[in-house]
Amino acid sequence: MRLRFRLRIKTTVCSTLASILILAITFRFCHLRIIFVVHTGQKVHMFNLILFGPPGSGKGTQSDRLVEKYGLIHLSTGNLLREEIANKTPLGKEAKKFIDHGQLVPDEVVIGMVDSFFDRHKNVNGFLFDGFPRTVAQAQALDKLLTLKKTDIAVVLALDVTEEELVKRLLNRGKTSGRSDDNSEDVIRKRFAVYTNETSPVADYYKKSRKFKAIHGEGSVDEINAALRQAIDKAMAVHKD
Ligand code: AMP
């Protein structure tokens, strides 16, 4: 009686183990990546890049070229805010008051907008962040959002341009861009002051994790683009490992 009971337990254990083994083999190929992510917290392979720099440093122009070349998703908080303004949404109406005065839109508004952008763009190769983060609080929030997506920032490329050149470029852009914040030299100077006080500490935040690289931002669009591509290719080679 006892022997039969032991035998039955042995048979049950063996068949359970066999079932687990068969299940593991069956799912090995199709679900390997999911199992890996769930059990080990393994990073998802994305390449996320921040294009950093003061207003007028060429982030928008270079972003358009880089997203096309590398198949990244362009996330420009300035563009998203201008869309909200054009659509006359409550968020847009609120944001306009800050933008017209050369001030930053409050962190919680911008972070919420980035969060919902992520929800609309899943399973992508990576993001190119342009004009975001602009405060240390935004950089910390971005780190948290990316950690939830099991990814991180690969590199921060900062365009370096002198203030005289920036004012010249912005006033020139204001003639055709239709942007209210490019028309007045006062608003432009205010944007630089905000950049120095609130945004430049973001550079130190990324220097700590050695992700920051300055790029000379004067010269032709092609020359600057070549320097950016060289830095991105190098960062990609390291980030693959
Ligand atoms: P941009 O097109 O990036 O130059 O942004 C234009 C304006 O939008 C800025 O001067 C800010 O008023 C606002 N803005 C854009 N991005 C942000 C951000 N990340 N945080 C706060 N305000 C922003």
Question: How do the helices and strands line up, and which of them pair or pack?
Answer:
Layout: H1 2-40, E1 49-52, H2 59-70, E2 73-76, H3 77-86, H4 90-100, H5 107-120, E3 127-130, H6 136-148, E4 155-160, H7 163-177, H8 185-208, E5 212-216, H9 221-240
Parallel strand pairs: 1-3, 1-4, 2-3, 4-5
Bound molecules: adenosine monophosphate.
List the defining traits of the structure above.
Rossmann fold, 9 helices, 5 strands, binds adenosine monophosphate
Question: Can you characterise this structure?
Answer:
With 241 residues, the chain is an alpha/beta fold. It has two domains: 1-42; 44-240, Rossmann fold. The chain has nine helices and five strands; from the N terminus they run αβαβαααβαβααβα. The termini are far apart. Residues 23-40 have low confidence and may be disordered. Bound molecules: adenosine monophosphate. Adenosine monophosphate (AMP) binds at residues 55, 77-78, 81, 98-99, 103-105, 110, 131-132, 134, 138, 181, 191.
